[in-house]
Amino acid sequence: MTRIRRGYIARRRRTKIRLFASSFRGAHSRLTRTITQQKIRALVSAHRDRGSKKRNFRRLWIIRLNAVIRERIVEGAVSYSYSRFIHNLYKRQLLLNRKILAQIAISNRNCLYMISNEILKEVDCKESSGII
Fold first, then answer.
1. pLDDT digits (tens, 9 = 90+) for 65-92
2. From which residue to which does any coiled coil extend (predicted)?
3. How far apart are CA 70 and CA 67, in angstroms?
4. 1.10.1900.20, 3.40.1050.10, 1.10.1670.10, 1.10.3720.10: which CATH number matches 8-129?
5. Residue 50 CB partners (closer than 8 Å, separation 6+)
6. Other CB atoms within 10 Å distance of the CB of residue 116
7. pLDDT of residue 72
8. Domains of the chain: which residue ranges?
9. Given 3, 56, 112, 128, which residue has the most CB atoms within 10 angstroms?
């Protein structure tokens, strides 16, 4: 009986998996079973860490904003914090997200101080006139 040569589909699938794991160390880049396990593990980690990266950056922006806002205590306000700043932003209906505000805080603090002073003036005027 003559020998039957196998098809190329399984080999193509394995080479595709091997290309994914070519940068892994040891058996994780050489043995097909461990390559598939490591591929699953890598993709799970990537999926999980995409969400944590978003959370970490949001935390960083909030920390930066809070530090810059607390650094400059405005006359008339005993303590001005991040939460009050964001609350007053929403009252004024200013649509600036935390990323943009943090970039402004780093690159041009005076601009952020101007924004916060204007917000405070507007809120104080509305509160004193009884609009709110």
1. 999 988 876 555 556 888 988 998 888 8
2. none
3. 5
4. 1.10.1900.20
5. none
6. 22
7. 74
8. 8-129
9. 112
